[in-house]
Fold this sequence. Notes:
Layout: H1 11-18, H2 21-36, H3 48-51, H4 54-71, H5 78-93, H6 95-99, H7 106-121, H8 134-138, H9 141-153, H10 165-182, H11 188-201, H12 211-229, H13 238-257, H14 263-275, H15 284-297, H16 302-315, H17 320-323, H18 334-360, H19 362-367, H20 369-376, H21 381-384, H22 391-411, H23 418-430, H24 435-445, H25 461-478, H26 481-484, H27 488-500, E1 506-509, E2 525-528, H28 534-542, H29 544-552, E3 561-566, H30 567-575, H31 581-593, E4 597-603, E5 606-611
Parallel strand pairs: 1-2, 1-3
Antiparallel strand pairs: 3-5, 4-5
Amino acid sequence: MTDLSDLTPAAWPARAAAWPAVPLLVALALWAYATRHTDVSALDDFGLVSALHPTFWAGLAVLTAGFWFTVRNPRRRGAWSLAYVLGLLVMERATQAVLYSTPLYAWAWKHDAVIDHLLTSGGLQTADQLGDMAVYDQWPGFFAAQAALVRLLGVDNAAMYMAWWPLVSSLMLLLPLLLIYRTFTEDRRLIWTAVWLFCVANWVGQDYFSPQSVAFALHLGVIAVVLRRYGRTGGRGGRQGQAVWTVLLSVLVTAIVVSHQLTPGMLVVTLVALAFTRRYRHWVPAVTTVVIFLAWCLTAALPFLSAAMPDMIRSVGDVGANVETGYGATPTGTGAVMTSWAARLLSGSVLLLALAGVLRQRVLRHRALPLLLVAAAPLPMFVASSYGSEMIFRVLMFTLPGAAFFAAAALLPKVRTLAADAADAAAREKDGRSPTSTTSTARRRRFPLPSLPPLRYGAWVPPLVLLAGTLAFVPSYSGKDRINYFPSSEVALVQQLFDQAPDDSLVVAANRNYPLAYEQYWRVDHYWFLDDARHHVDEIVRDPAAVLARDMAGVEAPARAYFLLTQGQVANSEMNGQLNTSQLRRVRESVTNSPLFERVAQNSAGVLYVLKPAS
């Protein structure tokens, strides 16, 4: 029998300090096992959700439980909370990169095509070549940076690493998030719970290989600088120090403005909202952003804006365009509907928790009011433009950093803010207590242990809510992977098309949802017939081969007209309420049996036809 008195005094604290490693390592081990035993060769309408091995879900549960019981203890070092958040990001954002043989999202492949054009031609299209890719030509910052990165890494193209971009872009958000939250509190429970909620509620999918992913990180960086250096007590070092931060701010804003169209507008409304508060009544950040934004819009981006401005003006106030569903935009099938509702419930729950946090934590309503404005400022953009019916998702994303902070406060007992701690210290000093005793008392009591019994909703409700949100992220984020994943065979089929297509050829497809859809867009034209008017789509369904041949007949030799149908197009059409399985089968069979078309390639992922010259 061991005599516990023989143990050294440091033995037990050391073991207690190391126990958070156990659930973290167990969770990662379960994740690794799940990725080795998950088959993604035949995804159904539930996407990755139904394909994942059960140990993945067990790993998420263990990770969430370990995080909660680690972060709620104020004596735990913040490094453990960071380790759990990193583990969460790996399980959330790296799973697809490990499981899938090719990068996700047709849009990511589209951005790779823009970078390829920049690398091969040395530049993008000019103003007199405005077309479907004009928006990328006028905002080339992200693509120029990625072209330089491709050359620096010595890889063939960005597709070599863009599958891992969701993890990279999510990691880029951590530093500005921590800086923002630490502006208002040193309560590690509140900070890290807010970061966790942000990660699990950020399901919108804008972390893929895109200008938005980088612009959003830069946006949070600007907000962090303004909150920490432009408040009443933030600016230190006099005019010289303020000038340095203004230069840094200008660099960040310029990088945003030259890379993305929407983010500068979101940044402007946020900075203006902060400038109206008493603490941040400093107009330099807002004015600097407006000047740089207008300078770019009136010069480099003017050709695109001149053409798009009438439509942009007409969309102002059109709230219905942000919420309407219809042809090509209605989730169809049990899997698509359930994953859509999972995403809505996840976002709605976080917003309701944020409201509860504002109402419950009175100290936050006053001390963290600027962060509440950061969360609310993007809301007017909802009526400013439909942004291709995606504005509702972008507003949600820009609202999330502030909403996650107040949602985390709803899950915790009484929280502390920096301003409240400073006020308490001043009060103690006024009462005649020594600064030393005041400091030591504040240090001991800054992070009190959670007082669970007084909570009205019980001790187990917060961790269960956190677990439910963590699990709900998976269907919200990966529930449409049947649409977004393209197997290697589909990539090979499309690559075969562009390897043989002469200049000025035409590629006709059902929709844009296939890899390399914009490959060599500067020399090959594209036509997606499901983007056309509904009456013309109905005409194609009635007599596919004849109508398609008529639409493709204008191509002059030596150019060719191709018809491409792949499994990515079929999945997108079926799950978004365009054409159903029988209609798509009719289109394919009609083209196959028509003497007007010749089949030139086929594999398990699709088929490629060419219109015969005589046609």
